[in-house]
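Recap for those who missed Tuesday's class. We walked through two folding examples back to back. For each one, the amino acid string is listed first and its predicted structure tokens come directly after. Nothing is annotated here on purpose, so try labeling regions yourself before you check the end of the notes.
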Amino acid sequence: MLYRATVPSSARNPTHGTIRGGVRASSCYIVSMSPNVKEILRHVESWPEEDQEELAALAREIEARRTGVYALSADEMAAIDAARRSGLASDDFVAAFWKRYGVA
């Protein structure tokens, strides 16, 4: 199951993926990277796994802000799946809760 969270449009970068003439560019490919980013990425491989995961989480937050879509990590997906299986609250109960408070 794939989960996505929407980021408000006010938090998105309006020029993300645009190039000259207003043509949209694919965000799948990195055309250029700043020297600072290249330098730090050379060091990341030698970092402990915990620090690499922290960097990955920060990068996911930046990507979510830029694209409006947050991609859950494997740990986050597992936690959501476990919560759904726990029986603590049914999907109907949760939907009614959010509706009652004007969120859904």
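Example two. Treat it independently of the first, because the proteins are unrelated.
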Amino acid sequence: MVYATNRAAKAVVWVATDFTDEYRKVLDWLSENTPESISFFGLEIELWRIGSSDPAPKFNVVCKPNELTKIERAGGLSEPTETTGTSTPASPRSLSGLLQMGTNVGAAACES
């Protein structure tokens, strides 16, 4: 959290081997009580081995921002477009979108 604050991070990803309900509630509270431009994710990590391969990490998303809450706080959904006829979120936030942006990501080890 200190690193994220000093770097003005837009996303915080907490990786642990296990998340208790208390830690999930912390991440949910942070998501609900911070500006819509900041997202909090909780990922549980597992090590998988296929055959005799080296262990590889597998990440399971256990906590992520409530997109609807963030969109509503940001001013709601945009109007339907003539091209698609569908609504799109005003400011979508997703882990895959963050990874595609290619930004520098700092990591910190935390244990729950």
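Answers for example two:
Residues 84-112 have pLDDT under 50 and may be disordered.
The two ends are 14 Å apart (CA to CA).
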